[in-house]
Amino acid sequence: MEYTSFGRTGMRVSKLGLGGAPLGGDFGPVTDEQVIEVIGRALELGINFIDTAPLYGAGESERRIGKAIQGKREQIFLATKAVMRGTPYTYENTIQSVEDSLKRLGTDYVDLIQMHELSELNAEMGMNETIPAFLKLKEQGKVRAIGVNAFNPSLLLPFIRSGHIDSVQTFCRYMLIDYTAMDELLPTAKQHNVAVINGSVLGMGLLAEAPAPFIKTDSPLYNEAQQRIDQLAFLRKSEPKGLIEPAMRFSLASPDITVTLTGTTSLRSLGLNASYCDGVGILQHELDRLLSLFPGQQLQW
């Protein structure tokens, strides 16, 4: 396992992190015992970064993680988010969201609190109310670092430049078929020493040949993604689902990505993904070829 400094915080984190959505049952049934087993194995593999949210399983992910980390809290860099989808991003709602998360997680602090699902609709309120609430919680010792999560990388730029945040998280924007996070997000984060968490490096399952249920096979998105995937034959490994390894290595080996998330309840998948965190990326000539295919071409989800 490789480790790195979490941006300007100086905290030490594994470059591979465990994502909490599957642990809440969002992608299929899961039990408390399975979550305890997965987190135990993650720790054995050297993974210390766990990322969750109230949204995942309507709080079940946080509750299960809290149960699994009892007696192990100091071994873990624990990240969650605020607020729940559909709740206004007010100061009061933010404070309450974090207090509720702390109860479910069974801890009196989280290492990272993140504004969840930033969009154009809530960007102003997020800056003016959620961020001040996070700063207050940081003063109180209930959070150690502050981050923002968004699907659209451009929305994150004002928050990075504000000087108030320690990390950003985006998803599906630094992967084999869409690496547009390279255009502005990664250079800006690097300039401000802000950590970058990379989610969904398998493109909501597209690169694993198991697209998420909401991706319709007759949609323009699916068709465009498949056209791009067809151009990646030179990266494909011989084993089934042969783009998983290059997809993981592409993110894990990037010096501009602090943490790459893996979301799984499978011990086998967890072990394989951890094995790719060895500092070895895809070959340079393959990387050069990849970066010549879709420069600046954002997939339209």
Description:
This protein has 301 residues and is α/β, with parallel strands linked by helices. 36% of the residues lie in helices and 15% in strands. Strands 3-4-5-6-7-8-9-10 form an 8-stranded parallel barrel, surrounded by 6 helices. Strands 1-2 form a two-stranded antiparallel ribbon.
Topology of helices and strands:
Blueprint: E1 3-5, E2 12-14, E3 16-19, H1 32-44, E4 49-51, H2 60-68, E5 77-82, H3 91-105, E6 112-118, H4 123-139, E7 146-150, H5 153-162, E8 167-171, H6 185-191, E9 195-199, H7 220-230, H8 244-252, E10 259-262, H9 267-275, H10 284-291
Parallel strand pairs: 3-4, 3-10, 4-5, 5-6, 6-7, 7-8, 8-9, 9-10
Antiparallel strand pairs: 1-2
Please tag this protein with its features.
8-stranded parallel beta barrel, 301 residues, alpha/beta, 10 helices, 10 strands, two-stranded antiparallel ribbon, globular
Q: Poorly predicted ranges (pLDDT <50, ≥5 residues)?
A: none
Mean pLDDT, to the nearest integer, reads 96
Tally of helical segments? 10
Strand content: 5-15%
For the report, how would you describe the main beta sheet?
Answer: 8 strands, parallel, barrel
Radius of gyration over all CA atoms, rounded: 18 Å
Cα separation of the termini: 33 Å
Helix content: 25-40%
Brief summary:
The chain is of the alpha/beta class and 301 residues long. Helix content is 36%, strand content 15%.
